[in-house]
């Protein structure tokens, strides 16, 4: 009986871990990051960024407090890549 309960808990934990990783993966793609950056900093040219650069800029600007700070940081980082 204890083995059945343990296996059930282990299976639920594994399923939760896999589903969490799959849902988080969406936010680490270059296409998602470019689309978000176009909204954050519409004047910046995000089309020429590589996937890694777009994700790096997107993740870096998430820590900013205001929309103006996010836009300024995103534009500065994008310009540094070009």
From TrEMBL:
It comes from the Bacteria. Residues 1-24 form the signal peptide. Keywords: Signal. This is DUF4148 domain-containing protein. It comes from Salipiger bermudensis (strain DSM 26914 / JCM 13377 / KCTC 12554 / HTCC2601).
